[in-house]
Write a structure and sequence with these properties.
The chain is α/β, with parallel strands linked by helices and 246 residues long. Helix content is 47%, strand content 16%. It has helices at 10-22, 51-64, 67-77, 84-98, 109-131, 153-163, 194-200, 206-219, 227-233; strands at 2-6, 29-32, 43-46, 135-138, 141-146, 168-173, 178-182, 187-191. It has a five-stranded mixed β-sheet with strand order 4-5-6-7-8, with helices on one face.
Length: 246
Amino acid sequence: MNIYIFDGSFEGFLTCIYHSYYDDIKPNNIIVTTNYIPNLIDSFINIITDLDKSSKVYTAMENTFTNETIKNIMHVFLSNDEEKYWILHNYIRLAFKFKKDVDMYLNNDTILKISKISRNVKLEAHRFTGFVRFKDLGNNKFYASIEPDNNILILIASHFTHRFKNQSFIIHDIKRELALIYNGEKYFIDFFSKTNYELANKINDMFFEDLWKAYYTSASIQSRKNPKLQHRQMPKRYWKYLIETN
């Protein structure tokens, strides 16, 4: 098997797509360098990220694909699916073949997988627009920690920057040690260490936490509690960072 290995960036992945079209050696799989385990059977080909090549691929995609197809590609790239790069490689090839009609071929296994993974990522991003709970750090600065299954920070950025236009905040993805950082004017996503997480959680915000818990308790109607519906709308794996459930 010929296996492309790359740095894990989106530009690096598009560079892999470029080489899969123009090189004589075609890949049988695409993996990130950190998952590379040498063996005597497979042939590993290191693909160096090339911004010119990746730009050519993205331009071709923009000119050929629908917005929905490009969104699907981005959502799946942000997913935690272990085979996502190879699935995306096959999807992109199909998209260049079928063009704007590609997403109609749901009888195709690759297109069906893309649809399911993309929908899962969008659903999780939507859920977190309501699940995030901020801690007051003082001086109009706020911090929240989350642990999503997928890499959704970029997908929830516009929601929170629009909702908190004049406030500075950090939304920290603990699993990936990344953070969405907003200074009241613009945002960026960057590495955020566990040390920073520990420092942020030393801030005493108990007054506001107790106030929210009291409101949550008083607003709930005991006779109308429906645990099954609650679990379906708000899966228990997300409860860890919800103040009202602790």
